[in-house]
């Protein structure tokens, strides 16, 4: 593949190579007639500026790394898409780094981040190890984390504890007393925070809670945890799920295997409000995290850090809204 070069544009327009460069460099001076000839030739040939080469010369890659473990799962996928949209709008080039889960995959992802001299790094909730943060900080790369806490980094967090307290209180006020919460054995910091706040609030109301955990924070994890919970003699009448994927697995087990009714026998609240939550099969009551809002906050923190590297870490907290559907109506 051979891309159209600036030299070819110059030849067709009948101008110098430097005139082409000046035409496509903001703030430089070029005669209106020359500019018109260059733009016409560029359009005819299908020429575009080589941003990669320009970035190398200016020592600015304009690449922004979006780092995630299992970025295809649940809310993380929608957040990664929203971040890409916001970054492209500001003229950045998003590059998604899937950290993988083996040592070789982690090492390859780390080399990719540093080798491409990313302008900044945004790390999503999940389980990228501490080595990613340390590597970025050693190389002076601006770092924004979403859904977790790391020292000396800018943060965007959801109001996990506020939402979880609201879920426990809503169940209690609706007369539910056999409560359960489902997380996972490999819980992210956000999932752990949701579990903990729900347990604490229920305890303060004098209600005991059964804890269920699957292998991971996904549909299969919800299925595994639900089967364990509903195999017990005393079955929950209300379940708070740490994310929607878990809730979907739980709801399918409750309806298809235990033959209990939702919400009459078992009320369910999820977290995230992914698009599937509104599907007729689920109609899940859940806390909405707006991926676009979180992405915009993260990009704003990144820009703030790029403009003022010496500022103290910034912190944004986005409080989720409870979206009422059919799985539980307070």
From TrEMBL:
Gene3D superfamilies the UniProt entry points to: 3.40.50.2300, lambda repressor-like DNA-binding domains
A GO MF term: transcription cis-regulatory region binding
SMART domains given in the database record: HTH_LACI (SM00354)
Keywords (A to Z) from UniProt: DNA-binding, Plasmid, Repressor, Transcription, Transcription regulation
Segments forming domain HTH lacI-type: 4-58
Recorded superkingdom: Bacteria
Name recorded for this polypeptide: HTH-type transcriptional regulator
Species assigned in the record: Rhizobium johnstonii (strain DSM 114642 / LMG 32736 / 3841) (Rhizobium leguminosarum bv. viciae)
